[in-house]
Amino acid sequence: MMIHIKRILFFVEIIIIAACSFTDKNNPVVPKDTDKPNTPFPIDGALQQENLLTLSWVFAGSDSFHVYLDDVNPPVNIAAKVKSKTKAVVYVSGTDKIYYWKVVAIMSNGSSIVGPVWRFSTKSQHSTEPGFVLEKHSLTTTPPSDVELLFQVLDMDGKGITDLTVDDFSVYENDKIISYSESNLTITKREENKYKQKVVLLLDNSTSITQDPENPNNLQLLKDAAKGFVDNMTDQQEISVYKFSSAPEQLIGFTTSTNKAAINSAIDNIGVGYATTNLYGSIIETVDDWKDFISLDSIIQGTLIVFTDGDDTQGSKTLQQALSAIGDKHVYTVGLGSEIDPETLEIIGNQSFIGLTDITELSQALLDIQSEIKDFSNSFYWLRYRSPKRGNNIVSLLLLIKDNPIVSKIEGQFSSSKFFDPAPGIYVSSTVTNPTGSDDIILKLGGEPAEVTLRTYGGAKTPLYTWEDHPFIIRVVSDPPTNSKVQVQPAANATVGLINIKVTDTENSFDTIIKFNISN
After folding, report:
1. Residue ranges of the chain assigned to CATH 2.60.40.10
2. What is the pLDDT of residues 488-499, one digit of tens each?
3. What is the pTM (predicted TM-score) of this model?
4. The pairing of beta strand 38-41 with beta strand 112-114
């Protein structure tokens, strides 16, 4: 018995050796160099690729990459800078055209590892026009059958597309187009939703800014340009200002457009700093001033704008530490003069780097950045509609832009198991577990305010709610212009008892009575 087992093992070993010793002549096995970016997708030499495609690769040891993409070999154009992911969405033009690409990994010590050059070719028949890129952020459903999608529309360079309307989109459920009129489909922009854009101005005031004999007024011109940026801020924008030389110093925290004078006053107080530039350390500290947050209910987006006339001369922090602190946050860099390091500022400025030869160009540069920030913030779209689907089914959603020259779409799925058909009218504080809500609200004297949310079912128009006034009830509207979400609490002189307040949806001619029970 042992002899037979040994013979079997012998033949198995021969088979394994044979399998390891021979390769297909037409498909030779090329070992991967895992010390460099590897495993490209599309695979090297791929044919018939879309003009809009996602490049991906594999590499362990870095989370910061530069993607070079060009129609020359080796590629010299940086198509994308990515952080915390190993993929990049790119657009290329032309049909039957060969493109070359490579990935450079930026290491923690500031060095880089260059990957091999790969290639692909585009389809033989395809539009070469630039188009729109759709990016999904969230998809949710709420009773009775409301579907809400938050998405963004960008161009090929990642800049915001702001002017699309509901008529520019097609929405499908299970491959069947949705009727706008029957579904009450609407698309709104940031002005009608909770959106906050935080901008940090980080301004270099080291001594070199005043040591240009040809431009002794540089510091004042810097301040004037920064104030011009402030004068053009939007209602949903907040600005914080820092000066930096040896260390960053905050001059004013995030302040809204209602107090532009205070921001400009803080800028006017900038004096000459020290003869050292702590560029990296200042970026690390200021980029931590906000956290980006995107949801259907609220968006907080931040941007850091860095102005400097030199490189980091202090050396207390490294470039890689600054890049790690930045992560996916948006940064613009503006450099002045011959002492800057353009390549470094381009790496830091993941949105854009602007090099200036004269500080008089700064005002326009900052206005251009402000325009880009506004476009990006206005490229968010909130889509809402009433789904006709019912029953315990999974529904596939598809969103397209009509006549988009490139293939870009948003896909998602949701369950219709909790969808139902409500009677037309206003529903108070409806939830997934209590879809019909409750019009009986308990308030305590001296207690925390209660949040009351309103929904109209069966209306043909976007609702607009008006509340009947009462001396014992204090209301604070938290989501204009519909007034559908309100913080309510008893007034200081309120008495214990029941108060009935009428709420009307003036757009759809519905009304209801909300009962407020005030207790000790």
Report:
1. 38-122
2. 999 999 999 999
3. 0.72
4. unpaired
